[in-house]
Design a protein that fits this description.
There is one protein chain. Helix content is 23%, strand content 32%. It contains 13 helices and 34 strands. The strands form 7 sheets. The protein has an 8-stranded parallel β-barrel, surrounded by 6 helices. A hairpin with a 4-residue loop joins strand 31 and strand 32. Helix 7 packs parallel to helix 8. The longest helix is centred in the middle third of the chain and has 17 residues. The termini are far apart.
């Protein structure tokens, strides 16, 4: 389908000589016109397109009418109604809520709601490069009603899920485009009419009539206001509840190819979730590698643990981009995750996409918005791991943390690797004051009831080798037991370092200096104290096997 060309506006020409006397005459009578208006309706030019009226405003978005159906541009939906609406290069319009994913391909009368086909009365069509959405489809996507009044030149979109403030008109008056008597007229109201009020500013009220006249009206023309309850259908959106009424206490289980035999795993007091690293994007776009083990799930459930399998992007930039930017590949990946979640009786999915192009951030958010409602439909909890805020384009700026937190159940803050494996300077994995700073920065975008603090069970042994005037720095990651053994073998006694809140030790032998900031029961206790102090949703530790058994005694007291 193609739309007729937009109406052309007449270009102004040179003013004739009689304009000035007429202008003087008009201006001389302006004050009379203000107070003694002739209530003649301004005609609607037949070649004009209808005005789009929404929440008391006349919008400039063009409305196209074909065969009695009004179409609105996607930009209106994106900018005014739903900032999360999405349109991609495959010609697919995607609308996501907390419990639904709606997909509509341009030119097709078949749409998909949570992957189930539905028939549309009119298709989404293209005018130029922009998709236009039928008004009747708007009523399916959102809690709105639409009405086209061609004779008045108005297409009205009205929100149904909000309480309305209405008032009667007590005296005949003009509705103005702006809140001034000198503004052009948008229409008129008569005594006895009822209007909806959206805003009051001084002596003016921004209103809308049932016929679609929208603009500003003097407050003196209105009677007593009345609030009416919303008439729209319930949204039915998924509202996540706190995990079983408790704080989340999760530990990640690192799986390269084979899941460890759980029979060798001892008790982990206080734990309620295990997250094995089972799924990752494959080399072929759209494929998901699967390393899940049903025996591990059975063991976890027998211990009272939920299983939130980790789903990784393999930390591959191009592999991730290929999937995120394709509607078809996103669908294919999501389908596999949904199948695996059902086959293995999983309780949740933990999304771990790291090393992502900065300009792919909106696509990553869209992927999460498309995946999460479908997982919710299967009763799964959905969480996502994010790094500490920094200026790194691929390791931090790739996360739209606020938008992600709006749809996810939990955000896991990986508050570690303050000094990572590639650092040229020795330093702690996660100093306690630095950890608190990362919490505060993340809480600027993520609500506390969704934020889970990631804590390290590992440390790093740093080796500084002096060669003349230069120093070469290298490191090795260690679990708690290995680190303690190093202290003992080197006969070094760690001491509490005030500025980091961690036990620290160093040893110099010739041209080599070793440094270590230890993670132990005391550092875990300090991190749990931070989670309590900020009333966070819980904690998550990387990873099982790095901890000492006695650490679980500390964790068992959380969140007491």
């Amino acid at each position: 389908m193609s739309f007729p060309p937009r109406a052309l506006r007449r270009k102004p020409g040179r003013s004739p000589g009689w304009v000035l006397p007429v202008l003087v005459f008009v201006l001389s009578g302006l004050s009379l016109a203000i107070f003694w208006p002739s209530f003649q309706e301004l005609p609607v030019p037949p070649e004009s397109r209808p005005y789009l009226v929404y929440r008391g405003d006349r919008h400039d978005f063009p409305v196209v009418v074909e065969r009695g159906e009004a179409y609105v541009p996607f930009s209106f939906i994106k900018e005014v109604i739903d900032p999360n609406a999405f349109y991609d290069k495959d010609g697919v319009v995607v609308v996501t809520t907390a419990n639904q994913v709606v997909k509509m391909k341009t030119g097709s009368l078949t749409g998909y709601v949570n992957r189930h086909p539905v028939e549309l009365k009119f298709p989404v069509v293209l005018e130029g490069k922009e998709p236009y959405i039928p008004g009747s489809t708007l009523e399916i996507l959102y809690p709105v009603s639409v009405s086209l009044k061609e004779e008045a030149g108005v297409f009205r979109v009205r929100q149904l899920d909000e309480d309305r403030v209405v008032a009667p008109v007590v005296s005949r008056a003009f509705v103005r485009v702006r809140s001034t008597m000198l503004s052009e007229r948008a229409g008129r109201v008569e005594a006895g009419d009822e209007v909806e009020i959206f805003e009051t500013a001084g002596r003016w009220a921004r209103i809308e009539t049932w016929s679609g006249v929208a603009g500003w009206l003097p407050v003196s023309c209105l009677g007593e206001k009345e609030t009416r309850r919303a008439e729209g259908r319930p949204s039915g959106e998924y509202v996540p509840t706190p995990f079983d009424g408790r704080k989340v206490v999760l530990v990640w289980e690192q799986v390269e190819r084979r899941t460890p035999d759980p029979s060798g795993i001892g008790p982990m007091e206080g734990l309620n979730v295990v997250s094995p690293t089972w799924f990752r994007l494959g080399e072929k776009p759209g494929e998901v590698e699967n390393y899940a083990d049903s025996r591990y799930v059975a063991w976890a459930h027998s211990q009272g643990y939920q299983v939130w399998a980790l789903f990784s992007n393999s930390f591959e930039l191009e592999r991730t981009r290929a999937v995120l930017r394709s509607s078809d590949f996103r669908d294919k990946v999501i389908s596999q995750i949904l199948i695996y979640a059902e086959v293995y009786s999983l309780d949740g999915i933990n999304i771990d996409f790291e090393n992502v192009y900065k300009d792919d951030a909106p696509y990553l958010t869209q992927f999460v918005r498309e995946l999460t409602p479908l997982l919710h439909e299967q009763g799964l909890t959905v969480s996502m791991d994010v790094t500490v805020k920094s200026q790194s384009p691929t390791w931090s700026l790739c996360y739209e943390r606020k938008r992600l937190s709006e749809v996810l159940d939990y955000i896991m803050l990986m508050a570690y690797d303050q000094y990572g494996a590639t650092s040229k300077v020795a330093g702690p994995v996660s100093a306690i004051p630095w950890t608190e700073w990362t919490i505060e920065k993340t809480l600027e975008e993520v609500p506390k009831e969704k934020l889970v603090l990631g804590i390290p069970f590992y440390t790093r042994l740093w080796k500084e080798t002096k060669e003349g005037a230069s120093v070469t720095v290298s490191q090795k990651a260690m679990g708690m037991e290995s680190a303690e053994q190093w202290f003992l073998s080197e006969k070094v006694t760690p001491v509490l370092q005030t500025e980091t809140g961690l036990r620290y030790a160093e040893k110099t032998s010739g041209s080599v200096t070793y440094r270590m900031w230890l993670e132990d029961e005391d550092s875990v206790r300090r991190r749990l104290d931070l989670a309590r102090a900020y009333d966070l949703a819980g904690v998550a530790a990387w990873r099982r096997g790095f901890e000492r058994k006695s650490v679980w005694n500390v964790i068992s007291d959380y969140p007491k």
